[in-house]
Amino acid sequence: MPEQGTPDAYLEGYADLIATASATGRRLTRDELDRRRALGLRAAEAGLGLRALVAAHLAETRAHWPRTPDAEGLLAAVEQAVDAFAEGYERAQRLAVRREEAARREFVDDLLYGRSDLGRLAQRAERFGLRLSSGHAVAVAQGANAYEEGDPVPREVESALVARFGDRSILLTTKEGRLICVAPGDQDEVLAFFAKHAFAATAGQVAIGRPQPGAGGVVRSYEEALGALDLAARLELNAPVLRAADLLVYPVLARDREAIVDLVHHTLDPLQGARGGARPLLDTLSAYFDAGCVAAEAARRLSLSVRALTYRLARIHQLTGADPADPAQRYTLQTAVLGARLLDWPGERP
């Protein structure tokens, strides 16, 4: 008897079909076709290659080819049998792909939300090319459209990553319409490359969390990246790539809401007495600080003359008592401006 790991093991009953078809010219029955499909499914589950299986069928056909056959009837039966066998094989492959996709999606959900035992999660991670014993960092890209695995954009970004880095324990997936890249924490070049290509493909924004150790590090880095995207939306930060490490001041300020509210109102409330309200002067301060306190650059960003900008800074000094040009007083003003962004103070938009 042929061993189950060989193609011949899945030719059961095939020689009899050939003989019957050659003698009678009849087509295969439904039961016979179902039997061939079942054998094809079993062969796929056993991991045999389809080419070898088809070759085995053709060799068996040649070995049992009668001397005076009804060629047309026999070839029709062979075509039916091989087609049914291949159909069963392909059905098994589709089922295996769906099971693999479901397992991968469950793993990604557990990985990003930390809903599984960390020891078991680390074991499952190795199946998908990750070693969670070392640190990892996560980059998240979002665009105007939502993306799912298998869409052209994720495939394009993944192809670029594989072509550049090969197999470096990188996981590229999608979650809630965003592109997610998980990479070893000591390989920042991978996430930088992902950010570049994801931004080009989505025309959106990419956030990179800090490297975090251990199996739970992926969750923390992922949450940092999501937090950076949320901050960017709230504060109108338009940089294409955001790094959570560069935005740590915002979560620190947000943790003590009572203190930041007090600082904003104590420092900036006097600006509401200006003609036109506080918004123009607050925007002036934001542009001035974002430009590194370079008046000419801030004026350019605001489409003002340097003289007009200087007048506004002087007016801010007059109203608040804090001089934006003085390093010590500048710190209080700049912190208050950051707090105003977090609080959406004073609320009106141009």
Key features of this structure:
single chain, 7% strand, 350 residues, 5 strands, five-stranded mixed sheet, 14 helices, alpha+beta, 61% helix
Number of helices: 14
Biggest sheet, strands in spatial order? 2-3-1-4-5
What is the SS-derived class?
Answer: alpha+beta
Q: Termini distance? A: 83 Å
Please report the total strand number as a whole number: 5
Spatial shape: elongated
Low-confidence stretches: none
What's the story with the biggest beta sheet? 5 strands, mixed
Work out the helicity level: 55-70%
Strand content: 5-15%
Question: How is this fold's topology laid out?
Answer:
Layout: H1 14-24, H2 30-45, H3 50-63, H4 71-113, H5 118-127, E1 136-142, H6 152-165, E2 171-175, E3 178-184, H7 188-202, E4 205-208, H8 217-235, E5 241-243, H9 249-255, H10 257-268, H11 279-290, H12 295-302, H13 306-320, H14 327-343
Parallel strand pairs: 4-5
Antiparallel strand pairs: 1-3, 1-4, 2-3
Helix pairs in contact: 1-4, 2-4, 3-4, 6-7, 10-14, 11-12, 11-14, 12-13
Structure report:
This protein has helices spanning 14-24, 30-45, 50-63, 71-113, 118-127, 152-165, 188-202, 217-235, 249-255, 257-268, 279-290, 295-302, 306-320, 327-343, and strands at 136-142, 171-175, 178-184, 205-208, 241-243. The mean pLDDT is 85. The chain contains 14 helices and five strands. The protein has a five-stranded mixed beta sheet with strand order 2-3-1-4-5, sandwiched between helices. It is elongated, with a radius of gyration of 33 Å. By secondary structure, the chain is of the alpha+beta class.
